[in-house]
Each structure stands twice: as structure tokens, then as C-alpha cells.
């Protein structure tokens, strides 16, 4: 992003402000009402953004071993990501605000304040895009400058000390807001609402007043003004009084047009599609699926569009080089998408997983009982080699103990019958 103020004598591209317009910092005639905080005036955008930001903020973030998927004990990072971002902001609020800004403007920024001794992250300081300047003239050496409104000096940071969320990017550096693709849809929705407002505010203007005689423009204007002034004190739906020189006829409004405006779901469906939110969450008819199926599909297939960029940014900025090869950040959604308890019972009874593994599938911590880490089975199911071993052993024992094999029993039965 380029500096905001420019010298008149500088030799710059006349389109230097486009980055600020695209980010919603400067208003634009084409997309100013669809970008930044102004976009939240649209109820569908507000609902969709709130749903996404809530889901990003509410699920715990775990640090796992990349190979074994075991949760690693890193209490400082866990506290920073899941409990408290800094002295005045909770981790939930920080993640919510970062998500809202990343969607509305394409980018969200926070400064990493590190421990001066260990160099480990200790706090996250959020800055809105309007207070952040990104200098990427040298793509291998990106500089972030934060301009706090209450401070007298700016804060300059290297890229490794800045959390930069961007859910869609075409140059790997700056993000692009999905709302840039919704200008026509939101405009169509706003036009429909304004049409309804004009209809209900029109009052007596939706009528025809016939007066006898030949009238010029001035006479028609005066008669209309006199008529409206005479009826201005009447309550809504009250009687309209005319004399025999006038004929008042209310217009018949085609209610199908109003129904079309009121039931136009196209814009809402487009907003849900672009922001990757299930349409039923925006009061749209859902396909023939249960809410559980729709919710699981949303979490497994749509939310990774937001989860994965966040997790990869944490890996890049929070971990050392030797840790990045072995550790990953993971949003724990098992409290919603975990296996049903009945399936877990079947899996543990069938020897597919241990009791603690089953608890992990629904987001519960393991129990210290050693038996919870053992594979269970019942006596009705054995391995094939054990079955063959058991049969061979019983056959040999019967023969040594004077027992009869099948041929002898069949022969003895034949003799007895004869």
C-alpha cells in the first residue's frame, strides 16, 4: 500500500489511490458503499460476516505434531491464541475483529510484541487497516508501518513481527475483499428496498384526480397542490372529500410486482455463495438435508477457506525454523463435528480405537486410567490364526484322551445301527 499523502510535484501513477479505495479506506463511487464498515449496513452482509467471525473466534486452536497429530504442550502460545491477546483484549475479541477486517477490507493486521529475553510472542496488538501502511517495493523485505491515532510517532515492523491475515490474494502480499464481487448484488438488493420504501411513502400520489374543463400546466399544478393541502390533515386511510367538479380514482397497484421485489432471493444467495456461508443461515430455503448435515458440510468444506490461511500465518510467525517442519496449528471443531457417541462405542467395542481416542473424537481430554489406552474386544470375535490354533489344539487333545474323531464316530454309529 502506498503512502496516503503525495506531493503535487512527484512523478507517480495517477491511479495511486486505487489500493486505498480497494481496501475501503477511501470511498469510491463504484464500490464505496460495499466495502469497509459501510458494507455492514446490509443485513445479509452483516449476518454472514458475523457468522464467519464467530466461528473463527469460538473454536480452540491446537498445536499438533504433524506426523502423529498429538497435541503439543506450548502454554504460552495456547494462552495467547485462546485466552488473552493482550492486557485489554481477549483472544476471542481479537480473532473476531481480525476476521471482520480481513473480510471487509481484504487485510487484517496485528503487531507481535515479543519477550525481550526469549523472543517468544507475548502480546498481539491490533491495528485497523486505516492505521497501517505496507511498503512492498522490495518484495523480499516488506515493511509495515503502524500509525496509532493517539501516538506521536509511528511504529515500523518487519514482516516476521506482524500477523497479516488475508483470505484471498493474487500477489501473495495484499489481500482482496470478496465484497468487491458483490457490488451489483448489493446494489440490486438496495434498489428493491428503496422501491418498497417509495411505495409505502407515496401516500395519495398513487391516484388520479380528474377535474372538469381544459387545464394548462399551471392549473393542473395548482389543483394538485390545493387537493393535497386539503387532505393533508386526514388520518391514514381516512375519507377523501371532493366536489362534483372532480373525480378521484386510486391507482390499482399490481401486488405481484411488490411480491417479486420482496421475494427476490438472488442477491442473498450470491452473498452467501461468495462469503461461503450456508444459504439457510441467511433465511434461505436449504436443500433436502438436515441442519446437522448442512452444518458439518459448512465446517468441513467452507470454513477451511478461513482456517487454513490463519493457521499457516501462525506457523510462519509464531514458530522457529526447526519447529515449522514438525508442528501445525489446527482449529478444533470436534465439539461440533465429532463422531456420534454411538459410533464411538461401536468403534471401541470392535477394537478400532481406545477409550481415550474415542474421548478425543468428541473433544474431551484423556483419562489417566491405563485401561483407557488399551484396545478392547469381546469374546465373540477372535483373529483367524487364533481360531485355527484353538481348533487344532482341541482336535489333538481329543485324540490323545481317547476321544473319537469324526470318522470313528460315523463308523461306530453305522455298526450300532446294523
How would you describe what is shown here?
It is a single chain. The protein is α+β, with helices and mostly antiparallel strands. It has four domains: 18-181, no CATH class; 184-232 and 240-272, no CATH class; 339-381, no CATH class; 384-417. The chain is 42% helix and 12% strand. It has 16 helices and ten strands. It has helices spanning 18-22, 43-58, 75-82, 91-105, 183-201, 217-231, 255-262, 266-275, 291-302, 304-318, 321-324, 334-337, 341-349, 355-361, 384-400, 406-417, and strands at 61-65, 108-114, 121-127, 132-135, 143-146, 155-158, 162-165, 207-211, 246-250, 327-331. A hairpin with a 7-residue loop joins β4 (132-135) and β5 (143-146). The longest helix is centred in the middle third of the chain and has 19 residues, at 183-201.
Amino acid at each position: 500500500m502506498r503512502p496516503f499523502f503525495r506531493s503535487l510535484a512527484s512523478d507517480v501513477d495517477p491511479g495511486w489511490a486505487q489500493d486505498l479505495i480497494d481496501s475501503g479506506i477511501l470511498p469510491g463511487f463504484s464500490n464505496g458503499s460495499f466495502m469497509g464498515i459501510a458494507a455492514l449496513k446490509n443485513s445479509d452482509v452483516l449476518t454472514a460476516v458475523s457468522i464467519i467471525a464467530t466461528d473463527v473466534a469460538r473454536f480452540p486452536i491446537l498445536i499438533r505434531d504433524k506426523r502423529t497429530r498429538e497435541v503439543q504442550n506450548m502454554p504460552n502460545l495456547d494462552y495467547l491464541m485462546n485466552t488473552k491477546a493482550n492486557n485489554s483484549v481477549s483472544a476471542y475479541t481479537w480473532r473476531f475483529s481480525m476476521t471482520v477486517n480481513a473480510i471487509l477490507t481484504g487485510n487484517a493486521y496485528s503487531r507481535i510484541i515479543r519477550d525481550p529475553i526469549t523472543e517468544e510472542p507475548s502480546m498481539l496488538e491490533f491495528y485497523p487497516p486505516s492505521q497501517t501502511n505496507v511498503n512492498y517495493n522490495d518484495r523480499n523485505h516488506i515493511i509495515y508501518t503502524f500509525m496509532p491515532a493517539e501516538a506521536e510517532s509511528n511504529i515500523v515492523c518487519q514482516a516476521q513481527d506482524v500477523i497479516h491475515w488475508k483470505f484471498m490474494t493474487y500477489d501473495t502480499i495484499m489481500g482482496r475483499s470478496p465484497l468487491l464481487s458483490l457490488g451489483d448484488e448489493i446494489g440490486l438488493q438496495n434498489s428493491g428496498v428503496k422501491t418498497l420504501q417509495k411505495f409505502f411513502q407515496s401516500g395519495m400520489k398513487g391516484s388520479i384526480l380528474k377535474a372538469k374543463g381544459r387545464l394548462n400546466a399551471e392549473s393542473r399544478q395548482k389543483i394538485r397542490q390545493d387537493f393535497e393541502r386539503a387532505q393533508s390533515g386526514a388520518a391514514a386511510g381516512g375519507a377523501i372529500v371532493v366536489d362534483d367538479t372532480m373525480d378521484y380514482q386510486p391507482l390499482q397497484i399490481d401486488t405481484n410486482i411488490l411480491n417479486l421485489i420482496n421475494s427476490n432471493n438472488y442477491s442473498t444467495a450470491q452473498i452467501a455463495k461468495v462469503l461461503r456461508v450456508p444459504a439457510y443461515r441467511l433465511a434461505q430455503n436449504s436443500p433436502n438435508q438436515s441442519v446437522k448435515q448442512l452444518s458439518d458440510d459448512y465446517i468441513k468444506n467452507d470454513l477451511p477457506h478461513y482456517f487454513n490461511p490463519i493457521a499457516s500465518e501462525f506457523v510462519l510467525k509464531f514458530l522457529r525454523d526447526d519447529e515449522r517442519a514438525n508442528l501445525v496449528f489446527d482449529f478444533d471443531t470436534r465439539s461440533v463435528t465429532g463422531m456420534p457417541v454411538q459410533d464411538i462405542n461401536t468403534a471401541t467395542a470392535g477394537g478400532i480405537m481406545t477409550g481415550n481416542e474415542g474421548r478425543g473424537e468428541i473433544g474431551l481430554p484423556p483419562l489417566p486410567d491405563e485401561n483407557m489406552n488399551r484396545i478392547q474386544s469381546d469374546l465373540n470375535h477372535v483373529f483367524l490364526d487364533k481360531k485355527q490354533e484353538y481348533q487344532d489344539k482341541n482336535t489333538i487333545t481329543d485324540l490323545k484322551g481317547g476321544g473319537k474323531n469324526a470318522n470313528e464316530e460315523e463308523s461306530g454309529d453305522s455298526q450300532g445301527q446294523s
